Each structure stands twice: as structure tokens, then as C-alpha cells.
Amino acid sequence: MKKNLLLTAILVSSFAVHSQNKTITITNSLAIDREFETIELTKKSLGLPSSAKLEDYSVKESGTSTFLETQVVDTDGDGNSDLLLFQPKIAASSKKDFQVLIATNPDATKIINCYSRFVPERTDDYAWENNKVAFRTYGPVAQKMVEDHVEGGTLTSGIDAWLKRVDYPIINKWYEKATLGTGTYHKDTGEGLDNFHVGDSRGVGGIAVKVDNKYYFSKNFTTWKTITTGPIRTSFILTYANWDAKGNKITESKLISLDYGSYLSRFEINIKGTKEIAAGLTLHDKKGTIGTNIKEGWLSHWEPLDDSELGTGLVAAKGTLTGFDNYITNDKDLSNLYGNLTVKNNKVVYYVGFGWKKGSPFQTKQEWEAYLSSFASKINNPLIVKVKK
Questions:
Q1: Could you read off the pLDDT of 44-85 as tens digits, one per residue?
Q2: pTM above 0.85?
Q3: Beta strand residue intervals within 32-111, DSSP E
Q4: Element (H, E) at 344
Q5: CA distances (Å), origin 16, targets 20, 52, 248, 319, 387
């Protein structure tokens, strides 16, 4: 009798482990091949018990020995992983099965391609990058330096573009040579450079609120929090001091993420005090050309920049980009191409980024806008994930 009980216990235990392995089907409804799109799996979506640990799981293409790179993310900072990320390749108008299983991925590299951090050694920047692009923005010490007339400060909530031309991380390397005095990231020695001027502009995707034909915006971020870095995604939160838009008290924070292979960062703006925001792309010296497609949901600016050319762009989900304003002024740095975005439940989501002619496949305005159009199509028709029962 005791032997039978023991056998039953072993069978139950074996079944419990086995049942935590899942097969998922991913469907691509578009007539284009898809890659560099991140699938987010949760314990709930996989039907796993709350006691399960996502870091114990790997993702394998069914019928093959091919494991995919994965990353787990603790979104709320409670010490437990909430998301399991991976990026499949799915051919046009097709579907593919994957296994999510308790196993060690023999092919895992865990190279941190998607990286971000606070940079106290350069005043108080916050910088982020993936294998394609890099960005930074500025903190309260840099703001106070300007307000106190101390040299070297920066006062803006605009977003700076770092024009990298290599697929490996450069943030730490560039800051180190600037800090040690062994070089400067304002000169291209083969990896790219920072020759993108922000000033009071919105840079690449900074926000504003328009009241009576005037644009108002926040000062530098006041606090930061890194959520994750890894092979697939980096994400972080920036908060801002409350600011005024002609009598309207605005409360703002940003959840920003950047995934592997993407030229665009995802901005999730949490905002109170307005029903609409404007996300801007700087027009610099107004020598560039804009492109707009409100129906598809994107805006573009293509401009000469030193000895090359640069495209910046904004993409938003269908129905959220309601219009644009090609705002031209003689005031220094305040000419921006603004996208008007509807605030819903105190939130706005859009994507912004750039393609540099020297550091990307985009050699013309047309090629850059084709990327934005394709990106818009993908976010409006996401890959469909179904867990097999």
C-alpha cells in the first residue's frame, strides 16, 4: 500500500512539472516578414501558478533545437519577475509554434545590448541605448547649474540623440573618455558622435502642452529609476517637477523603453492636467524636410547634419495621433514638428527615434519614412500569441 502511494506521488509530481511546459503559437497577420518585435509573456498568460519563477523558463522553437534569447523583467520592483521577453522571427502571413519550458538555454549569451543608467560623472544625465541607437536627457543638477549661472549646465527636458554607428554598447566608453580627458564624444573616431543639438527644443520626442498658440514644457527630470537592462530591453522611469501651462498644473512622468533591433524608443507618458500633449521633433536650423501621415500614425523630419543626413520620427497607434503642427519661429531652438496626441486615462504612448545615414540602412528620406510606415503597421497589427491548452 505504501509503495502505491509513493508511486502515485511521483506520478503527480511528474505531471505537475510537465504541465508547466507550454506551447504557444505566434501568428503574423501581415504580408511582411517580422523580426525585432518583443513578445511579453506573464505567468498568468501562460497559465502558470504564482509560485512559478519565470527565470527558470527558456523558449525554444518547436520541432528544432533552436533556443531563443530571453530576458525576465521585474516591472514593479518587488523582487519577482513579471515578464518573460523574447523576439521571434515570423515569416509573412504565417504562424510558428514555440515551447516555453523549464530548461537552461544552451545558447544564451545574456549580453546587455539594451542598456541604460544614471550618469553622475557627467553632471546627472540619464542615457540609454541598444544595438542601433542611443539617447540621453538631463537631470536636476544640470538645471540648477544653469539657474545659478554655473558653466557646463543644461536646462531642457528635450531628448538628445547619440549617433552611434556600431552595434556594441558605447555609453560607458564615451562617458569614460570624456571624464578621463582621453577623447570626446563630439568627434567621430569610427563609433559615431554626439553632434545633435537639443537646447530648448524637444529634441527627439520631448513633450509640450499648447495653450493659446504657445507651447509650454517641463524642466529637467527630477528623479529616475532603472527597471531593467539586458539582451532584449532596457526600461526606466523619469519624473518631473509639476509645471505650469498658462494656469494648468501639469504632473508628468515618463516610462521609457528601448528594445533590441529598434530605432525607436517607446515613451509612455503619465500626465495629469491636460487632455492632449504635443510630442516634438526639433527642426534645428529649418533646412530639413518634413513628412506626415496622420492616417498611418507617423511624422518624419529628414535633414542635413554636418557631412551626413539624419531622419527623426514619431509613430503612434492608430487614432491617437490626431494632427501635427510644423511650428516655425525665429526664437532659438523652438522650431519643432509637433505631433498632437490624445491623453486617455492620464496616459499617452508613442515611439520616437532616429536613423543616421552613416549608422543605419536609411540612406534617403523615402527609406526612413518606409521604416516608420512599416513600424506603424506592426504596432497596429501586433503578433498574435496563443497559448495551447
A1: 999 999 999 999 999 999 999 999 999 999 999 999 999 999
A2: yes
A3: 39-41, 57-61, 67-68, 70-73, 83-86, 94-102
A4: none
A5: 7, 11, 56, 45, 17
Q: Which residues of 117-143 are buried (b: 16+ CB within 10 A; e: fewer)?
A: bebeebbbbbbbbbbbbbbbbbbbebb
Residue with cell 515551447: 99
The cell numbers describing 32, all together, are 511582411
Find the length of the chain. 389
Question: Which residue has 512559478 as its cell numbers?
Answer: 52
CA distance 124 to 175: 12
8 A C-beta contact, residue 195 and residue 163 = yes
| Cβ 232 vs Cβ 254: under 8 Å | no
Q: Output the CA–CA distances (angstroms, integers) from residue 351 to 49, 89, 256, 280, in the order listed.
A: 34, 21, 9, 11
Which ranges in the chain belong to alpha helices (H)? 2-19, 43-46, 140-147, 171-180, 365-380
Q: Which residue has the cell 515618463?
A: 254
CB atoms inside a 10 Å sphere around CB 179: 11
CA atoms within 13 A on the CB side of 346: 9
70 Cβ contact partners less than 8 Å away, ≥ 6 residues apart:
57, 58, 59, 84, 85, 86, 105, 108, 232
Say if CB 251 and CB 242 are below 8 A apart.
yes
What is the reported pLDDT for 106?
87
pLDDT averaged over consecutive 10-residue blocks of the chain (389 residues)? Answer: 37 43 96 97 95 95 95 95 97 97 88 96 96 98 96 96 97 95 94 96 98 96 98 98 97 98 98 98 97 98 97 97 97 97 98 98 98 98 93
- Which of 56, 126, 122 lies closest to 84 in space, CA to CA? 56
Output the pLDDT for position 20.
81
Query: In the 8-state DSSP scheme, what is residue 46?
Result: H
Q: What is d(CA 160, CA 284) in angstroms, rounded to the nearest whole number?
A: 12
